[in-house]
Every structure is written in structure tokens, then in C-alpha cells.
Here is the input.
Amino acid sequence: MSGFGGRWRASQTAASEFLGQDIGPTTGAAADHLVHPMATSVFVVTQDSLVRVREGRLRVEKNEETLHAVALNKVRQVVGFGRVGFTSYALRALGRERIDVVLMDEDGSDAVRLVPVEAPHPGLRRAQYRAAEDDGETLRLARPFVLGKVGNQATALHRWFPADDRVQPAVAALGRCRETALGATSLDVLRGAEGAAARAYFQAWSALTAPEWQFHGRQRRPPPDPVNAMLSLGYTLLTNEAISACHAVGLDPFQGYLHRFHHGAPSLALDLIEELRPAVVDAAVHTVMTNGAVSAWEHELHSHDGCRLVDKARRAFLAAYENRMLTKTARPDEDGRASYRTVLHAQARSLAACLLDRSASYRPVAWRV
Amino acid sequence: MIVLVTYDIADDDRRADVALLLSGCGARVQLSVFECDVSSRPQLHVMRKQIRELIDPAADQVRFYELDSEALRRRYVLGARVLEERRDFTIV
Here is the structure.
């Protein structure tokens, strides 16, 4: 069970006192760091639990005992991991309230989601498919996703390994990839730049990671080490939120631009999360690796499924992921700051605006060093 | 508008019912203090009516303070203690 309250302590420095009164972190700049939303995410990790809805309250029960209860209008998302049951009444109630329901197995793979009946935006969808048939348009739309991601990967390396010379070659390589992406005149060159950047980034990150993590670069199916297991889980959660953002705006999450159309892959959702991968998921992974919330041995190795996190590590990572999603960042579309989660939805709206108006441009989220 | 709802309720069950009702309206900033987000006056009347039906008027008291944006802007919080109920997310 996590929240933000337990992590802060009243500072003893002069800056936290005013006229002899202790100010503490709930006022002033420190209080601005996280958004405290009315509607929150509920992650159900307890196996053999049951999610039910009664009298406007969502309850998570196991063996007749209520583990958690919350008013339904304070829930925006329910994610169930592994053997988590939902009564049919609960599923319909959640769908009616447009609360996201996502089910995945304990590793975060095999994700399925409940899709309520929604009103699509036919004009927007037509614009999506028309743009996909035009190579020039596709390139114009795909480019900012790569620029955003590569820029944020460089920020990650700067933040995590400040003043470390060993990171310089990778940062320089990311700079070159960014230049290539800026000037790319074909999708193949753009995708090549993205791939080269990812290789340089993960190579540098893994080289500077303590050996007990056994992290040697990004590897997916199956994840061979706990770092890759957490990355996969985080990217899956983020992708599902992007699918939800697409639906909210009326976009087809399966028609992307940077990501080719593959049967079954939510290409546009994958496009939208590119710029957020380093700032949200990689950042959460790095946080739990360095603050001790997850230890390098808190996982099990299975022959076919690869590395699987133990319960405590999964809970710690989910908390770190939510903390990143709630962290405020500068909005590319307008002044002011909002949580990464809000910005993801705003970016989906921004993309929709670009599809309907060719003179509009999509600005990716820039994670500041 | 934000309506500050604070209560003193003598009976545990009645208190739990009122807390359950108010937890759907806004943030529980202290154990018996809720900052409720009310979108219209009729909605405020409905909330008051629902609470009136839950309490014992002889033994309990509930107070409603309407806060405008200036009052909210001048809100000052001392201390970092946060209720369990105000979690930003839940992992169960």
C-alpha cells in the first residue's frame, strides 16, 4: 500500500521555517512535485482476489475479507495481475463509469482490456488512414516521436550518471542520431536512427549498472533479468494508458506512423509512448534500482518465461511507476505543468489536431536535464 | 465550488456511513474534514439531504463551509501527515 505521505519528512533547514513555524513539504515548491488526483489507479496484485462493486463502492475481497474499498468515482483505472477475478456486475459497472479495466498475467504480458462502447470520430479516423497512405505525411508525423524519445534518452543518461565521462560517447551518439532523425527524408532512415539511438542508450545504461543486476541491454521475450522484466511491465502499463488516451480522443490505436501497421500491435499507442519511455518507465526502473526499493535478487528465473519479479519487487515497481505518472512536467501544448498522465492524454489530443490540420505541428514532451 | 464539510458524529456506524458518502465527493483532508467538489447548488442540496438522513440531529453535528477560490488560495497546511485514505494510488 503506497501513497506519498510516508516518503516526506519535515526538513530541519532554515528554508522550511517561516516566522518560527515549521512549513514542511506540503507547502511551497516541494508540494508541487506530484499531482494528487481525485481518481486514482488501483493495482490488484493479490492472487485469488475478487473485485466487486456494491453501492457505488469498489471492493477487493479475498476469502470473505475486504482487502480494500474505495468509492467508484475515485477510481480511474483497475489493473489486475494474474489470478484476479471480477464479478460480471463489477465489469459492467466499471465499463459504464468509463473506468479502464486491464488484465495481465503477473509479468505484465498478455494484457487484455475491457473496451466500453464508445462513439468514434469518423472524420478523425479517415484523416488517420489517409495520412498513413502518404509517405511524406507519415514521415512528418513519425519524426517528432523519435526526436522526443532520443532527447529524453540523453536526459536520462545526464541525470543518472552526472559527471561520468564513460557516458559521453553514448550522449554524443544520441546527438548524432537526433541530427539524422531531423534530416531524415525517408522512414527507413528515421527508424534506423531510432534503432541506433536505442542501442547506444541501453548499451551505456547497462555498462554503468552494477553487475548483480545482470543487465546487458534491452531484451524482451523472455526478459532475462529483473531490469528487463520491469521495463517490459512498465512499457505494457504505459501502452495500455496510451490506448485509453487514443480511445478518449477518437483515434484508432492500431494505425501508427513510426510503428508499422502490424496485426494485433497497437502501433499508434506505441508511437505515443516513445517520448515517455525514458521519462516514465526507465526513470521508475532506475529509481527502484538505486533507492533500494527493489533488490537485484528479488526475482525468479523460469526456463521459458525468463525472469519474473517476486511480489514485493512488483509492488515496489508499480509504486514507482505511479509516482512517475503523477509527477508534474512542462506541457508541450500550453503553459503550465501537468502530470505525465495528463500530458499523455493531451499529446493524443495534439496528435489528433495535427491529423485534422496539416499546418499544426506535434511537439514531443521534453524531459529537462 | 469547494465545500468544506466537517463533522462530529457520536455513533461509529453513522460516522462510517457519512464518511463513505463524502469520500465520493472529495478529498478527505482530515479524519472528519472533507474538501468536497460540488458542481452546482442543487448538488449541494442533495448532499445535505443525504447527510441529514444519515445523522442523528440530537447527537451529531455536520458543518458546511463554502470556499471561494480566494479562500482556497489562502489555505495553509502545516505538517506532512497524510491520511491512508488520501493515497494517490493503491496496490492491493
